[in-house]
Specification:
It is a single chain. The chain is of the alpha/beta class. The protein has two domains: 123 residues, Urease, subunit C, domain 1 (Roll); 290 residues, Alpha-Beta Barrel (TIM Barrel). The protein has 16 helices and 20 strands. Helix 4 links the parallel strand 9 and strand 10. The longest helix is centred in the C-terminal third of the chain and has 21 residues. The protein is globular and about 65 Å long. Bound molecules: ligand LTUXU72L and zinc ion. Keywords: Hydrolase, Metal-binding, Zinc.
């Protein structure tokens, strides 16, 4: 059968309108063929039926009592950090990284990264996420997991040059460029790549300039952490006499396809600059709150025309990969930051987690309309915490949880049906990741 039908639900359409509709998906193309009444969808799928089930369309996902939304986009994470979930909490960014996370990551093997990425992929599929951006190491292993899990991703090797000699620093830049060149288009095109310097302070200027120039040649975007904490912004201002976003522009890292994680401590000139350049910002509210990094000016960024997407950051600073939490946190924190309850309304949070996420990453998806990528999640609204349904969009932003997702579809393939993940063996993934995490901690303890 060529087609998949999603029937009986309400559908979140572009612009935030919710209407009763069925959806026809062309599974070979991985796209939405039609959105409309059951008759319109029947007509779109034509005679595509399965005689073994009495002539009914065999691949049907029941969305009755639910809302069909674009698959959620986790636009900044380090997916293998699921192995470090709960490993080190309650510290600010710099000591957390230096005292706990980086020593643990020094002991990570490629097999650990694969085990952690599988666990993260499982968690994302179970919470309705169909696309993510990932910056980490052993990215061939992450790519293999993305391929098997059926997800969509923009992947890159994270470069850090500080504390390295010239040969090692250059090798790290080269590895990021090689990953960007070699993995682009993998998994039937579901994997795209980027050059990913870790940040403007952890990669020295000469390497930043060289890497960005080569990335431009290769036609891959740039993704980095920017303006996350004052501890990161202040040295740039002190040493260079300019703000980080101006520095990013100077090294040619501020382009229309680029996307920066955090953007917490950005002043008005930087907000304007991001808007003018078309560089997207990935807001990571839970991570920013947990590490006490600060409150991103989400309303002002959006008003300046900046594409603001949402990211969980790694599971060690969140501590989950549930983008529903991010929607709620973004709406709540955005209000607090602006001292205005209307600053980031529910519809804005949902838009950031869907269309803006796909746009920031330059990936298809993020909207439910004919011709768009068939990346979907069906959220069950039949639950006590979602009753009554005055406004389904309000529920998506403020009350729903990842565990309310009934089905997940990416590129026309059903990844989860009735909460059963079809592309990964959930039990084996959890067991393997738990064992890898426990061995890792033992190795760190005896290092
Ligand atoms: C070099 S690969 C990516 C690198 O980033 C680290 N990381 C995780 N969370 C954050 C964050 O909030 N800010 C900066 N860096 C972060 C991760 O542990 C990897 O080492
Ligand atoms: Zn990060």
């Amino acid at each position: 059968m060529t087609h998949l039908r999603v029937t009986g639900g309400r559908v979140l359409r572009p612009g935030g309108r919710v209407e009763r509709a069925d959806i026809a998906v062309d599974r070979h193309e991985g796209t939405i063929r039609a959105v409309g009444s059951p008759d319109e969808v029947d007509e779109a799928v034509g005679g595509d039926v399965d005689e073994s089930v009495g002539g009914a369309a065999a691949e049907t996902l029941d969305a009755a009592g639910g809302i069909v939304i674009p698959g959620l986009v986790n636009a900044h994470t380090h997916v293998a950090m699921t192995l470090l979930r709960g490993y080190a909490d309650d510290k600010p960014l710099d000591p957390w990284l230096r005292e706990d996370i980086w020593p643990a990551e020094a002991e990570l093997t490629p097999a650990d990264v694969e085990a952690g990425a599988e666990l993260g992929a499982l968690e994302m599929i179970r919470s309705g996420t169909t696309a993510f951006a990932d910056m980490y190491f052993a990215m061939d292993r992450v790519a293999d997991v993305v391929d098997r899990a059926g997800l969509r991703a923009r992947l890159g090797h994270g470069v850090v040059t500080v504390g390295k000699d010239e040969a090692d620093a250059r090798a790290d830049v080269e590895e990021s460029l090689a990953v960007a060149r070699e993995l682009d288009g993998a998994a039937d095109g579901r994997i795209r790549t980027a050059f990913m310097p870790h940040s403007l302070t952890t990669v020295e200027e000469e390497y930043l300039r060289e890497g960005v120039a080569e990335a431009r040649e290769a036609g891959v975007p740039i993704h980095l952490h920017a303006n996350e904490t004052t501890d990161e912004v202040d040295p740039i201002v002190d040493e260079r006499g300019e703000r980080p976003i101006a520095y990013a522009a100077e090294v040619d890292a501020l382009g229309p396809d680029d996307f920066f994680a955090h953007g917490v401590h950005v002043d008005d000139s930087e907000i304007d600059r991001l808007g003018d350049a078309g560089t997207a910002v990935v807001h990571c509210p839970a991570s920013n709150m947990k590490l006490a990094s600060g409150m991103a000016p989400v309303r002002r960024l959006r008003e300046a025309g900046v594409t603001v997407a949402l990211g969980t950051d790694g599971a060690a600073s969140n501590n989950d990969l549930d983008v529903f939490d991010e929607m709620r946190d973004a709406a709540m924190l955005g209000k607090l930051a602006a001292d205005d309850a209307s600053a980031v309304p529910a519809a804005a949070a949902v838009e950031m987690a869907t269309r803006a996420g796909a746009d920031a990453l330059g990936l298809p998806g993020g909207r439910i309309e004919a011709g768009a990528a068939a990346d979907l999640a069906v959220v069950d609204l039949d639950a006590p915490h979602l009753t009554p349904v005055h406004d389904p969009v309000s529920h998506l932003a403020y009350a729903a949880r990842g565990s309310d997702v009934r089905h997940t579809v990416c590129d026309g393939e059903v990844l989860m049906r009735d909460r059963e993940v079809l592309t990964l063996d959930a039990e084996a993934v959890q067991e393997r990741a738990a064992a890898a995490a426990s061995d890792l901690v033992d190795r760190v303890g005896s290092a």
